[in-house]
């Protein structure tokens, strides 16, 4: 019986070069292993689709306002370093916002409701946060303005929806860092307070 590692070069076991069968087996194994490595690891990430980049972050309300200003859909808003801004006629609404409301809300009922809402937002910026009575009065003014807006803008199916009006005026009122900080401080001061529905007529 021949030894297991004896070179058997008979026609039944030898290749063209006379290499023994076990050596040819090792060569084939090495070739297959190399091909497998090339297929699996040769191109890192091969066979996988490229990752979809994450969506851009949602613009802040102030960034949206700036975009609308740049496109001409909103007037250029006043950005003086004053929390209350310019209110030359002392109607409780910043002049640039009052001008926008006058041009946008042509229906008299909606115009008055939008002006009342703008006054409530403006009052929130200017309220003394250490005065409990002033905070309560500002909260009451805001509640009345919201109830008035609900009656003036029934539903959200009209040309200008109630929710759009509220978001727009809030963003316009807080269009600078200082105004936004004052508004956030007001909301923090009102946190935990109890609001009641206004009695009687809500609209001014």
How is this structure best described in words?
53% of the residues lie in helices and 0% in strands. It has helices spanning 21-41, 61-71, 95-104, 108-126, 132-152, 162-173, 177-190. It is mostly helical and 204 residues long. The protein is built from seven helices and no strands. Residues 1-43 have low confidence and may be disordered. It is globular, with a radius of gyration of 37 Å.
Features of the shown structure:
0% strand, globular, mainly alpha, 204 residues
Q: Report the helical percentage.
A: 40-55%
**Average of pLDDT:** 79
Structural class estimated from helices and strands = mainly alpha
Low-pLDDT parts are 1-43
What is the H/E string?
Answer: HHHHHHH
> Strand share of the residues?
under 5%
Radius of gyration: 37 Å
Q: Outline the biggest β-sheet.
A: none
Overall morphology: globular
Give the distance, in angstroms, between the N- and C-terminal Cα atoms.
115 Å
Count of β-strands? 0
Number of helices: 7
Describe the structure in brief.
This protein is 53% helix and 0% strand. The protein contains seven helices and no strands.
Please describe the topology of this protein.
Elements: H1 21-41, H2 61-71, H3 95-104, H4 108-126, H5 132-152, H6 162-173, H7 177-190
